[in-house]
Amino acid sequence: MKNKEKRESRMGKYAVPTMVLVIICIVVTGALAFTYGITAPTIQKNLEEQERLAAQEVLGGIEGVALKSQVKSYGGKLLAIVGFSKSGEVTGVKVLTHSDTPGLGTQPMKEDYLKQYIGLTELNAEHINDDSTVDAVTGATISSNAIYQAVSQALAEYKESGGEQ
Fold first, then answer.
1. In what order do the strands lie in the sheet with 64-72?
2. Of 73, 132, 159, 161, which has fewest CB within 10 angstroms of its CB?
3. How many helices (H) and strands (E) are present in the chain, helices listed first?
4. Does any domain span residue 40?
5. Half-sphere exposure at residue 85, Cβ-oriented, CA atoms within 13 angstroms
6. What is the rounded CA–CA span in Å between residue 141 and residue 82?
7. CA 21 vs CA 2, 4, 15, 17, 27: distances in Å
8. Using CA atoms, how far apart are residues 81 and 162, in angstroms rounded to an integer?
9. Model pTM score
């Protein structure tokens, strides 16, 4: 009889806290899902507004088209927007989101660095180090190349569409 009581006591000792933890997890997960459901439309609206403003910025007040481009960078995905004039020249580049290391890793995302793409109509290589028309930031080659790839991707999309979007 003692062994059976010990076994039941041990089961109760572990089962009750486990059940409480499972219930807490279910409640918290439900609360997070509910909160996400309420905030998702606002977040999406804010992202669309950010993209609209970025498109205006990269176009610089001229008539043209702005294309989004997503590539892999050092810290994960990098989303950039590239503006094009009607003649196919890059009018501006802006990084919308990234996960690269703050500091040196974000140097290529600054306006002064991105200006070197303005006026270009093509990029001539697979990697930034192989193209003499643009420079990479020393110590941030992966981030520099990600931006190069984003601009290259947008250029290809622009040309593929015949310059119209």
1. 64-72, 77-85, 90-97
2. 132
3. 3, 3
4. no
5. 12
6. 20
7. 29, 26, 10, 6, 10
8. 18
9. 0.76
Cα–Cα distance measured from residue 87 to residue 96, given in angstroms and rounded to the nearest whole number: 24
30, amino acid identity: G
Does residue 114 fall inside a structural domain?
yes
Alpha-carbon torsion 136, 138, 142, 146, what sign?
negative
Residue 7 falls inside a structural domain? no
- Count of structural domains, the chain: 1
Spatial CA neighbour of 82 closest among 120, 48, 132, 49: 120
57-116 pLDDT, tens digit per residue, is 999 889 999 999 999 999 899 999 999 999 999 999 999 999 888 888 889 999 999 999
For residue 93, give the H/E element and its range. Answer: strand 90-97
* Segments forming the whole domain that contains residue 84: 58-160
Say which amino acid occupies 86: K
Q: Which residues contact 44 (CB under 8 A, 6 or more apart)?
A: none
79 within a domain of the structure (yes/no)? yes
